Structures are given as C-alpha cells and as structure tokens.
Amino acid sequence: MSFWNLANLQLEEFRPGINSKAEIGDNLIMVCMEIGPEKEDAGHEHPFDQCGIVLQGQIEMFIGDEQKILNPNETYFIPSGELHGWKTFDNAVKLLDISLKQD
Fold it and tell me: Which among 13, 41, 54, 97 is least surrounded, fewest beta carbons within 10 Å?
C-alpha cells in the first residue's frame, strides 16, 4: 500500500513532455501525471474504463463526440472503447488518473 502527498510527489519522465508516478495494483492503476505545455494526443482508445481529475492547469479533452476544456477540480470519465484525446495550452497540466489494469 502506498500514500501520496500530491503537493510534493516526485514525478519521473514517462515520455517526452510527460512526467508521471504510478501505483499498480492487482486490478487498478493510479497515475499522477504532469503534461507539458503545447502537447497533444490526437486520439486513441482502449478496452478499459478510465477516469480522473484535473489538479492544476487547463486541458481540452474530447471523449467520443463531446469536447470540453477542464480546469482544476473537474473530472472526466472515459468508457471503454471510446475514442478520446487531449491537448494542453500555454501551461503544464497535472492530472490524477485511474484505470483498470490490463494483463
């Protein structure tokens, strides 16, 4: 079991422009990630539900046909198999993301 303090959690480079820290259990993955400014994921899908909350910054997300700019304390839920993506603006964004673990 692990406890995090999000105010001082140390993140490591996951891929260029994205730093993260993950806890991987038997069934769930919890990830805190910081996405740098001016980054984009044009869209992808996967066979599991995913949800999260914006901690800092602003991110534009689309889930299927819906599109919304999310600010701190706003959440998202992505049903399995739904095409989704995002883009960041002038500042980094920090998210807490939860998804099912895939074998």
Answer: 13
